Q: What sequence folds into this?
Protein backbone atom coordinates (compact mmCIF):
# COMPACT_ATOMS: atom_id res chain seq x y z
CA UNK A 1 0.00 0.00 0.00
CA UNK A 2 1.35 3.40 -0.98
CA UNK A 3 0.74 6.12 1.57
CA UNK A 4 0.69 9.66 0.17
CA UNK A 5 3.05 12.08 1.81
CA UNK A 6 2.55 15.82 1.94
CA UNK A 7 5.60 18.01 2.06
CA UNK A 8 5.31 21.70 2.88
CA UNK A 9 7.95 24.21 1.90
CA UNK A 10 8.27 27.67 3.41
CA UNK A 11 8.76 29.72 0.28
CA UNK A 12 8.43 33.41 1.19
CA UNK A 13 11.65 34.65 2.72
CA UNK A 14 13.20 31.17 2.65
CA UNK A 15 13.26 29.91 -0.94
CA UNK A 16 12.01 33.09 -2.61
CA UNK A 17 12.46 36.80 -1.99
CA UNK A 18 9.39 38.09 -0.16
CA UNK A 19 11.12 41.27 1.01
CA UNK A 20 11.50 43.25 -2.24
CA UNK A 21 7.94 42.77 -3.56
CA UNK A 22 6.56 43.48 -0.08
CA UNK A 23 8.50 46.73 0.23
CA UNK A 24 7.50 47.79 -3.30
CA UNK A 25 3.85 47.13 -2.49
CA UNK A 26 4.07 49.11 0.76
CA UNK A 27 5.59 52.05 -1.10
CA UNK A 28 2.96 51.85 -3.86
CA UNK A 29 0.03 51.71 -1.43
CA UNK A 30 1.28 54.34 1.04
CA UNK A 31 2.98 56.70 -1.40
CA UNK A 32 6.00 56.85 0.92
CA UNK A 33 9.41 55.19 0.86
CA UNK A 34 10.77 55.03 4.40
CA UNK A 35 13.03 52.03 3.82
CA UNK A 36 16.80 52.14 3.99
CA UNK A 37 18.64 50.75 0.97
CA UNK A 38 19.73 47.12 1.19
CA UNK A 39 21.18 44.56 -1.20
CA UNK A 40 18.87 42.30 -3.18
CA UNK A 41 18.05 39.13 -1.27
CA UNK A 42 19.38 40.67 1.96
CA UNK A 43 16.92 40.03 4.79
CA UNK A 44 15.61 43.00 6.76
CA UNK A 45 17.09 43.78 10.18
CA UNK A 46 14.03 42.81 12.29
CA UNK A 47 10.72 40.95 11.87
CA UNK A 48 8.42 44.01 11.66
CA UNK A 49 10.83 46.19 9.75
CA UNK A 50 8.21 48.40 8.01
CA UNK A 51 6.95 49.55 11.41
CA UNK A 52 10.54 50.09 12.55
CA UNK A 53 11.00 52.49 9.64
CA UNK A 54 7.85 54.44 10.46
CA UNK A 55 4.90 52.80 8.69
CA UNK A 56 1.77 52.77 10.83
CA UNK A 57 -0.27 49.80 11.98
CA UNK A 58 -3.16 51.09 9.86
CA UNK A 59 -0.93 51.24 6.76
CA UNK A 60 0.31 47.71 7.32
CA UNK A 61 -3.24 46.42 7.85
CA UNK A 62 -4.18 47.97 4.48
CA UNK A 63 -1.16 46.32 2.81
CA UNK A 64 -2.11 42.90 4.19
CA UNK A 65 -5.75 43.40 3.20
CA UNK A 66 -4.52 44.07 -0.33
CA UNK A 67 -2.30 40.97 -0.29
CA UNK A 68 -5.14 38.75 0.96
CA UNK A 69 -7.53 40.18 -1.60
CA UNK A 70 -5.12 39.90 -4.52
CA UNK A 71 -3.56 36.43 -4.53
CA UNK A 72 -1.23 37.35 -7.39
CA UNK A 73 1.10 39.09 -4.93
CA UNK A 74 2.79 35.79 -4.09
CA UNK A 75 3.63 35.17 -7.75
CA UNK A 76 6.03 38.17 -7.71
CA UNK A 77 8.54 36.52 -5.39
CA UNK A 78 11.72 35.60 -7.25
CA UNK A 79 13.68 32.52 -6.15
CA UNK A 80 16.74 33.11 -4.03
CA UNK A 81 20.02 32.26 -5.73
CA UNK A 82 20.56 28.48 -5.66
CA UNK A 83 17.05 27.77 -4.32
CA UNK A 84 16.32 25.46 -7.24
CA UNK A 85 19.56 23.56 -6.64
CA UNK A 86 18.62 23.13 -2.97
CA UNK A 87 15.20 21.77 -3.89
CA UNK A 88 16.79 19.40 -6.41
CA UNK A 89 19.26 18.24 -3.75
CA UNK A 90 16.49 17.53 -1.26
CA UNK A 91 13.85 16.09 -3.56
CA UNK A 92 15.57 15.36 -6.86
A:
Amino acid sequence: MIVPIRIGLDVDGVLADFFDPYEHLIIALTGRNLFLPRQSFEPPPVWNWPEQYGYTTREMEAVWAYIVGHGRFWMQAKPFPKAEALIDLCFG
Q: What stands out?
A: The mean pLDDT is 85.
